[in-house]
């Protein structure tokens, strides 16, 4: 079946960004002049997935409101004939049909995905994590959708990371030979997965990043998956069961090894780097910002100011 739906977990507390996220959802923190979550929904929409389900919590109403129309604001901009801002305000509401369901308790990514079961039904679907922004110049999701259409089962985005960082990610064991060659990104068969292994026990440096195209079979596995690392229901544990069952269950798990530009907005330093990089590349901001940044660095930066 073709993939038409995307699930975006957005129920996390955002503790790494406190106190900014005490009253503002972390997904609404601006990346230049748009909230991070809008980049993710836009990515799904560009890939043809215009039926989007947000997994939220009671403190995330602002996320839901962002993808709704704001008649009062639009009328004010219309009266001012501010067409540029009016277009940007309306853009978020035109990305697709955005729905939401609440995750009652923070029980892990696996549980968040399971909250989307009723909406997804018996169809393959995509999962996009809001902390990972994929540069639109390096499209990843369309290639993952193509791999899923070819082989069925589930597809996970992987990325090579430095060995000392593997304990921060889920890590994959893969077949040595790629399944598909001559494509933008290499496709491999995944045989096993482990969540945040110690560095000396990691089977590879291929880390799971926040993009998945999943078979609906994952829901049945998640329903019986016991809490794992951190006392949470881990999506990695459920996908590990599917990967180990492999051909016997008719549910292969493949990995697409991403080599493009990715911005981790879940970490404060990486978030700031993402804002700076994307702002410098904007034609309306870069010509002024980049020379200032060069001058600031050349002057010694904070040392000069101190």
UniProtKB/TrEMBL annotation:
Example of a GO biological process term: UDP-alpha-D-glucose metabolic process
Catalytic activity: alpha-D-glucose 1-phosphate + UTP + H(+) = UDP-alpha-D-glucose + diphosphate
Matches recorded under Pfam families: NTP_transferase (PF00483)
EC number(s) on file: 2.7.7.9
A single MF term (Gene Ontology): UTP:glucose-1-phosphate uridylyltransferase activity
Record key words, sorted: Nucleotidyltransferase, Transferase
InterPro entries (UniProt xref): GalU_uridylyltTrfase_bac/arc (IPR005771), NTP_transferase_dom (IPR005835), Nucleotide-diphossugar_trans (IPR029044)
UniProt record similarity statement: Belongs to the UDPGP type 2 family.
UniProt KW Transit peptide keyword: no
Enzyme class (EC, first level): transferase
Superkingdom per UniProt: Bacteria
Name of the protein in question: UTP--glucose-1-phosphate uridylyltransferase
Domain Nucleotidyl transferase, first and last residues per copy: 5-274
């Amino acid at each position: 079946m073709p993939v038409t739906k995307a699930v975006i977990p957005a129920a996390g507390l955002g503790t790494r960004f406190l106190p900014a996220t005490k009253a503002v959802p972390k997904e609404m923190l601006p990346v230049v002049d748009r909230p991070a979550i809008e980049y993710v929904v836009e990515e799904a929409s560009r890939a043809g997935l215009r039926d989007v389900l947000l997994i939220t919590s009671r403190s995330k109403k602002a996320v839901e409101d962002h993808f709704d129309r704001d008649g009062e604001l639009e009328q004010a901009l219309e009266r001012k004939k501010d067409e540029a801002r009016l277009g940007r305000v309306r853009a978020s509401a035109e990305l697709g049909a955005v729905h939401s369901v609440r995750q009652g308790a923070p029980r892990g990514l696996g549980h968040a995905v399971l909250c989307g079961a009723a909406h997804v039904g018996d169809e393959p679907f995509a999962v996009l994590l809001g902390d990972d922004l994929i540069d639109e110049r390096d499209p990843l999701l369309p290639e993952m959708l193509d791999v899923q259409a070819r082989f069925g089962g589930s597809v996970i985005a992987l990325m090579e990371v430095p060995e000392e960082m593997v304990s921060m990610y889920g890590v994959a064991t893969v077949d040595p030979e790629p399944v598909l060659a001559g494509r933008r990104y290499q496709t491999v068969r995944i045989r096993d997965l482990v969540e945040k292994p110690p560095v000396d026990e990691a089977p590879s440096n291929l880390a799971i990043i926040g993009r998945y195209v999943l078979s609906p079979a994952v829901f049945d596995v998640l329903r019986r998956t016991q809490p794992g690392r951190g006392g949470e229901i881990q999506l990695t544990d459920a996908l590990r069961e599917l990967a180990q069952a492999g051909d016997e269950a008719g549910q292969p798990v493949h990995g697409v090894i991403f080599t493009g530009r990715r911005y981790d907005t879940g970490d404060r330093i990486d978030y700031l780097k993402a804002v700076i990089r994307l702002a410098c590349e904007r034609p309306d901001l870069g010509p002024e910002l980049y020379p200032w940044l060069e001058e600031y660095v050349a002057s010694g930066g904070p040392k000069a100011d101190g």
